[in-house]
Amino acid sequence: MTTTQTGARTAGRIGDNAQRPDGTLKVTGEFAYASDLWHDDMVWGVTLRSPHPHARIRRIDVAEALAVPGVSAVLTADDVPGENAYGLEHADQPVLAADVVRYEGEPVALVAADHPETARRAAARIRVDYEVLPALTDPRRALDDDAPEVHPGGNLVRHLRVRRGDPAPTAPVVVSLDFEVGMQDQAFLGPESGLAVPAEDGGVDLYVATQWLHVDQRQVCLALGMPPGKVRLTLAGVGGAFGGREDLSVHVHACLLALRTGRPVKMSYGREESFHGHVHRHPATMTYEFGAERDGTLVYARADVLLDGGAYASSTAAVVGNAGLLGLGPYRIPSVAVDAYGVFTHNPPCGAMRGFGCVQAAFAHEALMDELAAAVGVSPVEIRQRNGMREGDRTTTGQVIDSAAPVAELLERVAAMPLPPPLETSDLRNLPGAVGNTTHGEGVRRGVGYAVTYKNVGFSEGFDDYSTARVRLQVVAGEAVATVHTAAAEVGQGLVTVQQQIARTELGVERVVVVPADTTVGSAGSTSASRQTYVTGGAVKAACEAVRTAVLQRAAVALGGPVAGLALDGDKVVGAGGEVLAGLADLLGDDAVEETVEWRHRPTHAVDPETGQGDAHVQFAFSAHRAVVDVDVELGLVKVVALDTAQDVGRALNPDAVVGQIQGGSAQGMGLALMEEVVVADGHVRNPSFTDYLLPTILDMPPMRVEVLEYADPHAPYGVRGVGEPPTISSGPAVAAAVRVACGRPLRRVPIRPEHVTGT
Amino acid sequence: MDFLQPSSWHEALAIRAERPDALPIAGGTDVMVELNFDRRRPGALLDLTRVGELREWSVEDGGRVRLGAGVPYARVIGELGDRLPGLAMAARTVGSPQIRVRGTVGGNLGSASPAGDAHPPLLAAGAEVEVASAARGTRRVPVADYFTGVKRNVLEPDELIAAVLVPTAAGPQQFCKVGTRNAMVISVSAFALALHPDRQAVGTGIGSAAPTPRCAPEAEEFLAGELDWAARRPLPEGLARAFGERVAAAAAPIDDVRGTAAYRRHSLAVLARRAVTWAWDDLRRAA
């Protein structure tokens, strides 16, 4: 007689709400962020930054700073051994300004000292002789013939043309508007920090909070004049990113000081320096026009989008790409003419931020959709459903959408959600102004607004977008353990959890260790463009599959049968019926099975330079929001009562984490609609602190209803669709629309300030 | 930087006299921000948190509350909501719960910011600031005379704020504060109102709309003269509006990163109109 034992299934697989491995540490305050880095004999590095938006450096005198007791090094541009230039797309940004400063806050010199306060005191004693030059601070003037040149060769970073259909279309109904979007900050809570440790081989080990270790490594190597083998990066604890860590911050500076002093060097920005130390979301000036049939069916769209890139290129060209290629929204439009421009100015550099060019455009196209709805006499929901993309449609660049595009359904779902109860005045916290006690109900009007978006997932326009994963299966202390090693940056979004879930699913082992991300394994690409679960998830899956294949072949040999039908589950080798055939630990013995896989999504393609036509993107992600607001129309104060959403995520690998992304993204979009703005006047940042750069609090952000749709993308691993960005794009325009409805004013600029609502 | 920690009021005043370069610190919610942002590097910090006298409040003869300079906002809210409703309402709008546990009315007066939340209700209530020095003893300054400029006050270099004396409310009080988000925000404009039916008078206080917190005396007199104190008939809408306009006219606001001068004036008119409506309704209900 034989008995068949069926093993327990491995828990914490994809689709489960597996707990974050770093969750307890973070909640209890034990997690080591980059600002907690420490080395016993370290010194502290600080940056001296330009007070001027545009000036020539005539001379720098560091003698007085060097004489401060405790100071071990003072460095300027002359001390950069390699190329004094870096940049994500173009190396146009000096590590330390040499002859000219092009924005307020540009790094000019570095100091290392035994105490950060000493270093700051010494930095204040560096004498920089500036010749202040006229600054170009109005992006609308950047392309004028007489505008000062920010860089030789002119102020145009990129002009993207998209042309499709009838070049001279006409329509019976025409609506148009101008729209402006202010500069938003990523406002991650963990400021820029890193620790550079000089190594015995003459190289340097850099521990730093970032979004893409390998692109940092490439730039640091160029600046230091060192080969990649001598510049090793390890990810330090990242306290949020949102695009603001794509560009270098402390990286080269800390390495330069470490190599000069021979000591480990820590650099950590305060909040004010952080506002100067990373790129922001591009301010935008936009003109849009829609032509439609009398029933609201779109005939054509024209758009002119101007993005202020600030002083250096950063990722402006790619942001222009998104604004141009996706900037008409998720609608079927037969004829389009879009011109998107990114320009240089002497304003703070702008670059990547969650939503990447789509955020700005969505405020314009969604406001205009509401105008169109009003012009033809249909509801905001109906106008969007009538024109919304469907699977099989072509985008404005002619690309066929080859997986779900549920625009109409998303809108239907948010529209069908229950509306919040009417205004309740007994608790001030429910009212606009809250305990500020500005109204007891007087002047309060309710408004409801809708918005929908789509966003590309992953890098587009022909970029070789891949990730590398190394997976090892071996026995540790009698149990099978999978080790996953990638260079992918966990920035708080939960990729570490998803990597564990994928390994458990594919290898059937409970214990999965995700080792720290570093440059000893191949590039994972950037933690941006909502791409890591898709691309690094795909790489981990592929590496696990390769390991599994090897293990099952070994099992087949050991068991004396075919590979077919064998599987791994519950730390066992199981047969087709789930019956346990062998323990994984017994099968592996002392051997480790390790595979490294470089994984790519389907290729994308550059667009035609004249028409912008082409298959530029690998995947699109869709979301819709409905905002309900109470507005005190006499004071212009807003209480967001509800901010509900529906989003297609393809497949939710970790449903709780998906909802967390949607809540956070929605809050960030709402913040831009109502309060978040880096105010820049004449090239100077006026509010570099959380006192006056306002982020939504718990009294500003309502509880959300979130409906998650799972229409699997057949081309993506597990059917996943990027999650992180769409909510940031559609939430803000929905809030802005609701405020417009409540107060009856056009409100063509965000953030909407109280004086815009009141017209004072 | 020296850190000086007196354990008694007497000792605090002695240190203050010796060290005019010392910056007094109580809750630290202003001072620490200044230090962290490297805006100030005083020769010493004079920590007043161990001076027990400062953390007490009592009711004086005549019904005035003597509020020690070191009583935090959380206690004003919890313990003085009935006696000093306007100040308690203002205290509720200060920062976050953590800040309200640390921050003090005395500290607010020390910073003397035009945006200090405690100032408008103190003006409206007709409070006095009690200051003291080792050499000259105690003096009391009407809060309307206390502020001398942006973040400046009448304190001499050897003086410390001991307490603020606030008349117990004899009638309804209101405090309204506009900010660009719904919590934890510095005011764009603020307005406090106190009705004194016992003497048929009106008190006002304006915040964030002039170089210093200030009263609107003309608006006070106008309203006091127009209100139907005897019969307490409903407030005419036109009167509330006219009062609001006079309050707005008393302001001298500027454009800055938090708001425009025009909006500040406009919002004060709205706040004053609403505040007087609520306060008068309260008075009628109480009758």
From TrEMBL, chain A:
Domain of life: Bacteria
Biased composition (Low complexity): 1-13
InterPro entries reported for this sequence: Ald_Oxase/Xan_DH_a/b (IPR000674), Ald_Oxase/Xan_DH_a/b_sf (IPR036856), Ald_Oxase/xanthine_DH-like (IPR016208), AldOxase/xan_DH_MoCoBD1 (IPR008274), AldOxase/xan_DH_MoCoBD2 (IPR046867), AldOxase/xan_DH_Mopterin-bd_sf (IPR037165), Xanthine_dehydrogenase_dsu (IPR017609)
Aldehyde oxidase/xanthine dehydrogenase a/b hammerhead domain ranges (all copies): 28-134
GO molecular function, one term: oxidoreductase activity
Pfam families attached to this UniProt entry: Ald_Xan_dh_C (PF01315), MoCoBD_1 (PF02738), MoCoBD_2 (PF20256)
Disordered: annotated segments: 1-21
Stated name of the protein: Xanthine dehydrogenase, molybdenum binding subunit apoprotein
Organism: Geodermatophilus africanus
From TrEMBL, chain B:
The keyword Oxidoreductase is assigned to this record: yes
Keyword annotations from UniProtKB, A to Z: FAD, Flavoprotein, Oxidoreductase
FAD-binding PCMH-type domain boundaries: 1-171
GO molecular function, one term: oxidoreductase activity
Pfam families attached to this UniProt entry: CO_deh_flav_C, FAD_binding_5
InterPro entries membership: CO_DH_flav_C (IPR005107), CO_DH_flav_C_dom_sf (IPR036683), Diverse_Substr_Oxidored (IPR051312), FAD-bd_PCMH (IPR016166), FAD-bd_PCMH-like_sf (IPR036318), FAD-bd_PCMH_sub1 (IPR016167), FAD-bd_PCMH_sub2 (IPR016169), Mopterin_DH_FAD-bd (IPR002346)
PANTHER family the UniProt entry points to: XANTHINE DEHYDROGENASE SUBUNIT C-RELATED (PTHR42659:SF2)
Full protein name: CO or xanthine dehydrogenase, FAD-binding subunit
